[in-house]
Amino acid sequence: MSRNLTQLLVAGEGQDRPTVLDACKAIVAQHGELTDADLRDVAACCGVPEATVHGVVSFYDDLKHPRGRRHVSVCTGTACWAADGGAALGAVAGALGVAPGTRSANGGLSLAPTVCLGLCHAGPAVRDGTTVDAGPGAVDRLLAGATLPAPAPPAAIGGALSEPVLLAGGTYAGLRHALARMAPTELLAVVKDAEVRGRGGAGFPAGDKWQFVADADEPADGGGKVIVVNGDEGDPGSYIDKHLMERNPQLLIEGMVLAAHAVGAARGFVFVRSEYPDSLPALRAAVDDARAQGLLGTDILRSGLDFDVAVHEGAGSYVVGEETALLASLQGLRGVVSARPPFPAQRGWHGRPTLVHNVETLANIPYIALHGAEAYRQLSPGATPGTKLVCLNERFAAPGLFEVPFGTSLRTICEDLGGGLKDGRTIKALQIGGPLGGILPADALDTPLDFDALAQRGCMVGHGSILAFDDRTDMRALARHLMAFGADESCGKCFPCRVGLRRGEELMDRDGPVDRARLEALLETLELGSLCAHGGGMPAPIRSLIAHFPDELGLTP
């Protein structure tokens, strides 16, 4: 073999071979690039066709481009774009003399754009190796070679609750209570009664997902059912999962074990973004600690439950936040979306019934297990049960992560918790829930933060980011930025998304008026023809801009 892959041939996670993604990442980490000979060797090592390896390498950001001994990346996510108009990448490229996506001739330095580093409260953000920096001086520190471990100001942590739920430290009290006093069917019934809605975007009832997995047939090979945590949801503007994985991983692990108890799962995986270099070690340390306490492994707390967790790292892809793409990536393959049915609850990881949840959803479960469904519903009387974490971007005077009851007005969140915008600027618009979320004008700040109320305004709760654009924002430039993001992050499987988003970027990038009829037809094609929510959801913010800022977009009548 051209590169020594024998060290990768170790048993792990029930496999006697590494996955294609694992093998490719190992080579890049050691040598900075993948040669044609490497791709042939990986195919032989992993027992797959060479075309499969080419598909993986051409898909993930961490594998596409050669890496220098020093690798620098600059965040181009929407929060950083709002902070500096997207100037940071060009400034770094010019100063370092390396074009984005390339490596210097001597192999010493490489540069790449990235989305998102999770420091949206203090953008613009940059990364130098495993060190992440953010804030007004981040670019200067990077260029001076003086980036420090976590020099960015920490996000403010707070909320509107007398006693936090999701921001409270994990204690495993809910797990101890459930394993001692609740049969699996009882716990599942309580979760359904609590009416937990998924926090990853769609808001699907979590209890229904649990029921589907619990009712699914056991795999014929006896390998058991699976819990998969989506820690790779990288909505620009959101750093909720990052906080939970790094500051409160115990709450996540407790939620996973509770879910395993209810649905009969034997193993779990947390799939973590490679853009969050601090999340992987924090989670692995928490897993080791839980195992040492008898909270993971065999016969947990002498209950008869066998369940263990492994933590895996992604390789740079936004669309892997979609559950079928996530499962493909977890299996080491190209992270493309699959048509459904079958749903993961029926056939997921390696064909096993699989419960897929995002980090925040599972973080709700310990409270329910300990206090019950009624107490959970009363956290937000008259609104969606439970609480919601929201995060505010760098434009706010007091950016940070806050826990609020559902039904709290956006005005309360933005003005009372966030302190309004800094430097005396005014809010021009808000994007809520990530890049697929609609955009609200400033006159809609009295809208409650809740699923139905936001849906009526063409928006969604989504992942909980609240991203403010101040009065200086060029809304046509914002539309182009969003279209470019969508096009860059498309998995490419369906042509409406692969081609349509690039055509939308081109429409916004041209000089002169934008043909409104052509734009509307393009958005309709994306909505109706895309395989998943990436292409189908990207029209939402553009439609909001058309509705509220048509003159700035330069639309023809």
Main features:
single chain, 557 residues, alpha/beta, 6-stranded mixed beta sheet, 5-stranded mixed beta sheet, 25 helices, 15 strands, 14% strand
Task: Report the end-to-end length measured between terminal Cα atoms.
Answer: 63 Å
Whole-angstrom Rg = 23 Å
Instruction: Please report the number of helical segments.
Output: 25
The stretches of 5 or more residues where confidence is low (pLDDT under 50) are: 9-14
Query: What is the spatial order of strands in the main beta sheet?
Result: 6-12-11-15-13-14
How does this structure look, described?
It is a single chain. This protein has 557 residues and is of the alpha/beta class. 41% of the residues lie in helices and 14% in strands. It contains 25 helices and 15 strands. It has a 6-stranded mixed β-sheet with strand order 6-12-11-15-13-14, with helices on both faces. Helix 8 packs across helix 16 (365-371), helix 9 runs antiparallel to helix 10 (206-215) and helix 21 (495-509) packs antiparallel against helix 22 (516-529). The longest helix is centred in the middle third of the chain and has 15 residues, at 249-263. The N and C termini lie far apart (63 Å). Mean pLDDT is 92; it is low at 9-14.
List the helices and strands and how they pair.
Elements: H1 20-31, H2 36-46, H3 50-57, H4 61-64, E1 70-75, H5 78-84, H6 87-96, E2 102-103, E3 109-114, E4 125-128, E5 131-134, H7 138-143, E6 156-159, H8 173-181, H9 184-194, H10 206-215, E7 225-231, H11 240-247, H12 249-263, E8 265-272, H13 279-292, E9 308-313, H14 323-330, E10 354-358, H15 359-363, H16 365-371, H17 373-377, E11 387-392, E12 400-405, H18 410-417, E13 427-432, E14 439-441, H19 451-455, E15 465-470, H20 475-489, H21 495-509, H22 516-529, H23 533-537, H24 539-548, H25 550-553
Parallel strand pairs: 1-3, 6-12, 7-8, 7-10, 8-9, 11-15
Antiparallel strand pairs: 1-4, 2-3, 4-5, 11-12, 13-14, 13-15
Helix pairs in contact: 1-2, 2-3, 8-12, 8-16, 9-10, 9-12, 11-12, 11-13, 20-21, 21-22
